[in-house]
Design a protein that fits this description.
The protein is an alpha+beta fold and about 140 residues long. It has 7 helices and 4 strands, in the order E-H-H-E-H-H-E-H-H-E-H. Strands 2-3-1-4 form a 4-stranded antiparallel β-sheet, with helices on both faces. The longest helix has 11 residues, at about 120-130. The radius of gyration is 14 Å and the shape is globular. Bound molecules: guanosine-5'-diphosphate.
């Protein structure tokens, strides 16, 4: 299987509870390598653009407000089949449905404050990586 990249966000509920290290450790233990990382405070414009696909969903406004409520850590992860591997270690969107041992089962507070974002396809991963990182910031 090929080594590929995916995009991850450690969300405000996790940074607020000082879980950046614990989440990163879970990603690394799942075989993913953090090849780029920065802690940022998203602007409303950035969050709205990033989640534009959800613009028509009833929770869009709440989601944007949540994502700008505190700092986030944006990361590029690399590994074997990285998109699928990351989705597996993240767990289901709703922590109530997430499998034992997954990041969302362990740490998420609700379907919205669910601790991590992970790209859902290689195509979206490339778009999301380019949204936050210059090529020179991804250092392997
Ligand atoms: P993901 O790919 O597992 O993150 O899930 P989605 O792409 O479906 O949703 C994006 C994000 O929107 C989720 O990670 C949650 O933070 C939030 N979200 C999804 N569904 C709901 C919902 O029903 N209510 C609220 N408040 N937020 C939601």
């Amino acid at each position: 299987m090929a080594v590929t990249r995916t995009f991850s966000i450690i969300k405000p509920d996790a940074t607020a509870r000082n879980l950046t290290g614990a989440v990163t450790q879970a990603l690394e233990e799942a075989g993913l390598r953090v090849v780029a990382s920065k802690r940022i405070r998203m602007t409303r414009e950035q969050a709205e653009a990033f989640y534009a696909v959800h613009r028509e969903r009833p929770f869009f406004g709440d989601l944007v407000s949540f994502m700008i409520s505190g700092p986030v850590v944006v990361q590029v992860l690399e590994g074997e089949d990285a998109v699928a591997r990351n989705r597996e270690v993240m767990g289901a969107t709703n922590p109530a449905d997430a499998a034992e041992g997954t990041i969302r089962k362990r740490f998420a507070q609700s379907i919205e404050a669910n601790s991590v974002h992970g790209s859902d396809s290689e195509e979206n991963a490339a778009t999301e990586i380019a949204f936050f990182f210059e090529p020179g910031e991804i250092v392997g």
